[in-house]
Amino acid sequence: MADIIAETPRLILRTIEEGDAERQYRLLNTPAVMARLGGPKELHEIEAKHARSMALYARDGFGFLMILEKATGELVGHCGIKRVDNPLAKNIDDHEIGWVVRDDRWRRGYAEEAVRAVLEWAFTRVGAPHVVALTSALNVGSWKLMEKLGMERRADLDFDDPAYPPEDRTTILYSLKAQQWQEHMQ
Fold it and tell me: Mind listing the pLDDT tens digit for each residue in 132-164?
């Protein structure tokens, strides 16, 4: 049974449960949604990612969450916290937030609503001193949201990841300290 971690006016953020990999594969794994994330994945890749996320949640008390739309009960995205684990990153083990929203729900403010709930979770219950978010320069929607949330660009933490296509190979980072978040929320 999934745990509800946060609720917003329009969304429920809950832990991953059995069957979510198939739902994610069907609803979030589109060329548009996955364009800046290395392209659509195979179902077994999503299942493996979910298994890792569930294990990390059990160990650390945080992980990625499924975003459900209250009005319909449908899966509209995922959002959460994990440790930076890319071996090419300069800030291994920092708390990293990330999100994705299915393309038929874009431009409704769902990503911002979910990320604000995850930031509150990160800074109040998880106790993260700061969080980072990683993206590519071409993922304009993501880094604009990072800036809107008060995150600061950290060019000193950028790195190249050859696992991605050339246009997305440079991973750019933004950071937000707990105190900055508290000030931004006032």
Answer: 999 999 999 999 999 999 999 999 999 999 988
Q: Which two tokens stand for residue 57?
A: 């949640």
Tell me whether residue 103 is exposed, middle or buried, using C-beta atoms within 10 angstroms of its C-beta: 0 to 12, 13 to 18, 19 or more. Answer: middle
pTM, full prediction: 0.93
> What are the Cα distances from residue 96, in Å, to 18, 80, 105, 131, 173?
24, 8, 23, 5, 10
Phi, psi of 21 (to 5 degrees): -65, -40
How many domains, the chain? 1
CATH number of the domain where residue 103 is located: 3.40.630.30
Q: Which amino acid is at 142?
A: S
Residue 148: per-residue pLDDT: 94
Per-residue pLDDT, 186: 60
How far apart (Å, rounded) are the C-alpha atoms in residues 140 and 136? 8
